[in-house]
Design goal:
This protein has one domain. It is mainly alpha-helical and 195 residues long. The chain contains five helices and two strands. The two termini are 27 Å apart. The radius of gyration is 37 Å and the shape is rod-shaped. Helix 2 crosses helix 4, helix 3 packs antiparallel against helix 4 and helix 4 packs across helix 5. Strands 1-2 form a two-stranded antiparallel sheet.
Length: 195
């Protein structure tokens, strides 16, 4: 996978390059490399995009030069029963058609490469959306746990005031009950596997 990440960096798929190290957890860019690496359709599309490029290298070359050799034996009694002849056939390009073929092949190669990159970009965009959603939910859960921790502190203070004989306030009891309920819900969410 590291070699694949280096290949993507060499092809400038990622603007900042990729320093791939999965041992320290995945960054967004490393997750994109993993998504591209383990998506067989995109890897096949990337390979197929190279086919017209290879064909463009041979486009415009003479497609018909050939050498023909004919050997015959005459069955009748003649002085020289064996006859051999050879021909060389080729087309002399005068019309500029070969240059046009090369340009067309290069244009087809460019289209295929752009299609493969478009599919990769769509995958990366979807991954980025999911990553941002996951990051937002994770941060919201952290903030909720901090808030619930603050409420638990308030509940502890309220209970200590109540035990000390301070006057009882109904609003604090409601918040304390909500805090206890929220702590239980946060614990339940933490124990549940992520969907």
């Amino acid at each position: 996978m590291v070699a694949f990440a280096r290949q993507l960096a060499a092809e400038r798929v990622f603007a900042d390059g990729v320093d791939f190290n999965a041992a320290d957890g995945l960054t967004l860019v490393e997750a994109e490399v993993v998504a591209l690496f383990f998506n067989p359709d995109l890897r096949v599309a990337r390979l197929r995009a190279k086919v017209p490029t290879i064909g463009a290298a041979s486009a415009g070359r003479w497609s018909d030069p050939y050498f023909q050799l004919d050997v015959e034996r005459i069955l009748e009694s003649v002085a020289h029963p064996w006859v051999a002849s050879g021909t060389l056939n080729f087309t002399i390009p005068l019309s500029g058609r070969l240059g046009v073929e090369r340009d067309r092949a290069l244009a087809e190669a460019d289209v295929e490469i752009r299609r493969a990159y478009e599919r990769e970009a769509n995958l990366r965009a979807g991954l980025r959306r999911a990553w941002m959603d996951w990051s937002a939910v994770s941060r919201r859960a952290e903030l909720t746990e901090e808030y619930l921790g603050d409420l638990a502190t308030l509940q502890t203070r309220a209970e200590s005031l109540r035990d000390a004989g301070e006057p009882r306030v109904r609003a604090d009891d409601r918040h304390a009950g909500a805090a206890a309920s929220g702590i239980d819900e946060a614990e339940d969410r933490r124990r549940r596997p992520a969907a």
